[in-house]
Amino acid sequence: QLQLVESGGGLVQSGGSLRLSCAASGFSLSSYNIGWFRQAPGKEREGVACIKRSTFTTTYTDSVEGRFTISRDHARVYLQMNTLKPEDKAEYYCARSTSIVCSLSPNSYNYWGQGTQVTVSS
Q1: Could you read off the pLDDT of 55-96 as tens digits, one per residue?
Q2: What is the spatial distance between Cα 110 and Cα 27, in angstroms, rounded to a whole number?
Q3: What is each CA distance from 68 to 2, 35, 88, in whole angstroms?
């Protein structure tokens, strides 16, 4: 069974940091481009970052550029989130891409984890 599992969410004060982790079962993460997404209540799911499988090239949405870093090793994909802001509060998901390019569109992803909650207090 193909599965993605996120971990590392929690409550942090504004300006703080969290590190999210994404692990997979049923397939090798290293064979796919992997993205991180987030969804706040009442809002659409938003692409946050993506990392390519072979070149490790990264892509970020503008609002997190310079604050978030996506990385990967052979088993996991990480999202290091620094200088967190209240507007970063959301459910965060990792997902497996169907595309050879690193897209931030949810339409380019076919497997999703269950999410991990990130709450940032002001």
Answers
A1: 899 999 999 999 999 999 989 999 999 999 999 999 999 999
A2: 13
A3: 27, 13, 11
What is the number of alpha carbons within 13 Å of residue 121 lying toward its C-beta?
A: 4
Residues 6+ apart with CB under 8 A from 22: 4, 5, 6, 29, 34, 36, 76, 77, 78, 79, 94, 113
Q: Dihedral sign, CA of 4, 28, 51, 71?
A: positive
CB 32 within 8 A of CB 24: no
Please give the Cα distance from 113 to 21 (Å, whole number).
11
Which candidate, 5, 55, 10, places its Cα nearest to that of 30? 55
Query: CB within 8 A of 116, min separation 6: which ones?
Result: 6, 7, 8, 9, 20, 91, 92, 93
The pLDDT tens digits for 19-58 are 999 999 999 999 999 999 999 999 999 999 999 998 899 9
